[in-house]
Specification:
By secondary structure, this protein is mainly β. 3% of the residues lie in helices and 26% in strands. It has 1 helix and 9 strands. The strands form 2 sheets. It has a 5-stranded mixed sheet, with no helix packed on it. A 4-stranded antiparallel sheet has the order 2-1-4-7. The longest helix is centred in the middle third of the chain and has 8 residues.
Length: 235
């Protein structure tokens, strides 16, 4: 016997979410990972992620780089210029986009993303008056399949991880996190580093109960939205 699911449940069962699959830096394209299983020896700057499945809790160990622990290559980027991340697909239009950096303070092989060293350089949350709308950062990804962020002009040069995170809020009180990381070498003559108030650890940059994470955009009482985690540092 066949049963039909109510239409409002159908989107929750569609296993077609998305992940960053390439980057553009200084006019050059750097391919990322595009499959569902890590490929041994892949020559990319992106730390490999295993699948399109969401992370459901902000304290999950995969939150750092979606399970990725290393990559064989890195890309040079000049401070003050843009990095554009590209997605092959994205299906949700409610939730913020957040872009983070992590200073490796050494070689990428020893850069594990641990400790209170992550800081935001960009975010787009709610862009209109209503939470129950498509006026969100992730709607820009849905429409354009890309997102550009400026590397702070005066940042201290060195090896960094850049982490793009989409937080999907289309299911009430059921946040879905989609982070990916790549290895970049920032060049320039800057000396700026973010103050301690801008730094956090990942996982657990906020509590699961944070109002920017645990959200009901349909029947909740919120009339505004603040992205979870510390404020954006622009250098």
């Amino acid at each position: 016997m066949l049963f039909s699911l109510p239409l409002f449940l159908a989107p929750a069962l569609v296993a077609a979410h998305g992940a960053v699959t390439s980057y553009e830096i200084g006019g050059k394209t750097y391919e990322g990972y595009q499959g569902f299983s890590p490929v041994s020896g892949a020559q990319i700057i992106q730390r490999q992620w295993p699948d399109y499945n969401p992370i459901m809790t902000v304290t999950d160990a995969k939150m750092t780089c979606n399970g990725g622990t290393g990559a064989p290559l890195s890309a040079e980027v000049a401070a003050g210029t843009n990095i554009t991340a590209f997605w092959k697909q994205w299906t949700h239009q409610q939730g913020p986009v957040m872009v983070w950096l992590y200073s490796c303070d050494g070689e990428f092989t020893a850069c594990d993303g641990k400790g209170k060293k992550w800081f935001k350089i960009d975010e787009t949350g709610l862009t209109g008056p209503a939470l129950n709308s498509n006026d969100w950062g992730t709607a820009l990804i849905y429409k354009n399949l890309k997102y550009s962020s400026k590397i702070p002009q005066n940042i201290k040069p060195g090896n960094y991880l850049i982490r793009h995170e989409l937080l999907a809020l289309h299911q009430a009180n059921t946040p879905q996190f989609y982070p990916e990381c790549a290895q970049i070498k920032i060049t320039g003559s800057g000396t700026a580093t973010p103050p301690a108030s801008f730094l956090t650890s990942i996982p657990a940059y906020a509590a699961q109960s944070d109002p920017g994470i645990m959200v009901d955009i349909y029947q909740g009482k919120a009339t505004s939205y603040k992205c979870p985690g510390p404020a954006v540092w622009t250098g």
